[in-house]
Design brief:
homodimer, eight-stranded mixed sheet, alpha/beta, 407 residues, 33% helix
């Protein structure tokens, strides 16, 4: 235990950087913890040892009762909130964490009250052990040989991180989308360690359509000649074409039809890169004609520069595989019986990737087990993306919920 | 005119093949007509000469008043109804036309009463002049240099075919999806030549989301190294990877989430190719795990063997560009003012590609112009695909409508 305590002290990272001239921002510092103990995976494989990257915000109270674990979705990381500083102590522009609207000092998940932990999942490309790292058994980069990891494996690894941070029980576990699946899995794998679970824009499993979109994205990556069976690192290539297609598909499914029409509609983009609704068509099959095409290509290009192809395969597969009811003949109520936490579920009316109906399935199954469940269905136009956006009703619901969480 | 008449006589193809031992099927024979007159295209380019492939079913009456033109959608052809025979006079299995449920003797569009014409669009890969043919100006295969064609260009070419068949006025023009856009365009470009228009599962233009899906499919094709800038024919390659991805995306959008869940759900497919819901997961990112993956890969593989990549680009672009309201500042009612036809519109409740709301926009704009409009919204689970399926309510609506069409 003393070793755990020391590790924890080393890992405290929240800084209010007093030298900043404008309102003090929450400054984040990524940390890495190494785990020597092998991790047995759901697949039967195991990881001999591994690192987890994480960040924390706020201060763990003396009772160690105010910790909130935030789980990330497909392309996010442990950098949940705050900003990064450069070597000169200046805020790096656009370095805000992916859920910075949700948590920080005075925000819905208030880091003045809670000690928030963001952790990067195994298999990621943002710090925790993943396919870009070296397999200690072979001395070679893992690549496509990195073992398939599941939501349950991530929870297992996260639990070990909490052990090392000296946190026996979480005030709450929280996540959106795939992160919500992890929050749910926490309540099943470690029911005594979770007092509250906040599950946003999530689902008890993927539908056939969800799996279908994942599969098309994976096929685009795997059939890119630059993928080289997943060992592209040693060929000095990146399957950018596949990653671009994967990301474009993803973006379509994150947005609602309505918000796409509102943001892009049938607007044209001029050859010079300007929006120009009323210019004549160019009559080209390959050049950008519509604004939505420009947006998607840009998103695809950006993604292909920073995201790892093997990570994409692994994380979409973790999504596909998650299905707690499967071991119970499809009976979700039976599957959720171990949960002891209180729940807040939130869904968004125009989210067709993880629709409100899927959240309602979870609500029903939890109520079947006499769990304490709050559920908010937010009428938002933004589709699945809404869970990352600044909607006052949504943020208000989460704030009220956390205000009631006793420490 | 005498030349037109002769051409028409040569082109009559409907045969009841008396030698067949079972119920006489409608037998189709594809025909090709050559057009020497250049076709000026919307883009400003022109086709010097061209062929149109077509089929006809039923008999043109003496008054020439019973012709119905059927327009096809993305991956279909002039082979609308009936079957093909092999050299021995036997029916070729699975050779039914793509709308064989809808038209034929005694069917909703009854070929005992109507003379039905199916025509393949310019730019296609199924017979009419397209990118796989030789550009007469260069002696080279067109490839990516085939000019961009629009819905309006297709209607223009179809009108010339009708001229040659000696048909001054159509009893009806009919189409689903992109075919419905052509039917609508017919009523605007040749209002005096169309008495009825049957527009099924269509829209006044594509939404941003529709364009987005088209764009991802096109990018998958164009960035396939085997595409070679659209001149893959001369490299002896086919951009199969891109075509597969395009088709997989297409299939997802043709089906509803509901029907996908019903047909595939989270069913697994065994390594031996059998559906096996309860076997353990294989924990692989690249092997087929779920039944839906198997289905999509199969559809993609099939498509890549028969469909031309440049045709895919051209036809999706024709979809993107169609927007009759564009020339009227987005005012659809003004755009549809020239129409003189009576209309039947049909949409399907779970069609999220061309939703009922889009058909209702058309209904409203036609009513604004005091047009005679019948509209049926069919509560069908099958998504966009429903327009090709055998739903008794849907077929009943179309049958009733055609029963009232006077000749």
């Amino acid at each position: 235990m003393s070793r755990t305590r020391i590790a924890f002290e080393r890992c405290r990272v929240l800084l209010f950087h007093e030298a900043m001239s404008f309102a003090q921002p929450l400054v984040a510092t990524p940390q890495t913890m190494h785990f020597e103990e092998p991790l047995a995976l759901t697949s039967g494989a195991s990881l001999r040892d591994y690192d987890l990257s994480f960040e924390t915000y706020g201060t763990l109270n003396a009772e160690r009762s105010n910790a909130v674990l935030v789980c990330h979705a497909l392309n996010a990381s442990h950098h949940v909130a705050g900003v990064y500083l450069n070597a000169q102590g200046q805020v790096i522009p656009r370095s805000e964490g992916w859920w910075d609207t949700m948590m920080g000092p005075g925000k819905p998940l208030d880091t003045n009250r809670f000690f928030v932990i963001g952790v990067n999942n195994l298999g990621s490309c943002f710090g925790s052990t993943g396919p870009m790292h070296v397999n200690p058994d072979t001395g070679q980069v893992w690549g496509a040989d990195f073992p398939v990891v599941t939501v349950e494996d991530w929870v297992h690894a996260q639990a070990r991180l909490l052990d090392r941070l000296g946190i026996a029980q979480l005030a709450a576990v929280m996540g959106g989308s795939l992160g919500g699946m992890q929050a749910l899995a926490w309540t099943l794998q470690h029911p005594e360690r979770v007092r509250h679970a906040v599950v946003v824009a999530s689902a008890p499993n993927l539908t056939a359509e969800n799996i279908a979109f994942n599969e098309v994205a994976r096929r685009a990556i795997v059939t890119d000649p630059d993928f080289h069976g997943g060992h592209f690192y040693r060929h000095g290539t990146i399957p950018r074409r596949g990653l671009r297609i994967a990301r474009m598909i993803g973006h379509i499914t994150y947005l609602s039809d309505d918000v796409m029409n509102e943001k892009f509609g049938r607007q044209l983009r001029s050859l010079a890169g300007e929006v120009a609704a009323n210019r004549p068509y160019q009559f080209s099959t390959q050049d950008i004609e519509f604004e939505i095409e420009s947006y998607l290509r840009h998103q695809g290009d950006k993604f292909a520069e920073y995201f790892d192809a093997n990570t994409y395969l692994l994380i979409t597969r973790a999504l596909d595989y998650f299905d707690p009811a499967r071991a119970h003949g499809g009976d979700l109520s039976r599957a959720l019986a171990p949960a002891r936490a209180q729940f807040l579920l939130v869904s968004f009316s125009t989210d067709w990737r993880f629709s409100p109906a899927r959240s309602r399935e979870l609500v029903k199954a939890l109520l079947d087990n006499q769990r304490d469940v709050s559920y908010a269905e937010i009428d938002a136009p933004h589709g699945h993306d809404a869970f990352l956006l600044e909607d006052p009703r949504y943020l208000g619901v989460v704030r009220s919920y956390f205000d009631k969480v006793t420490l």
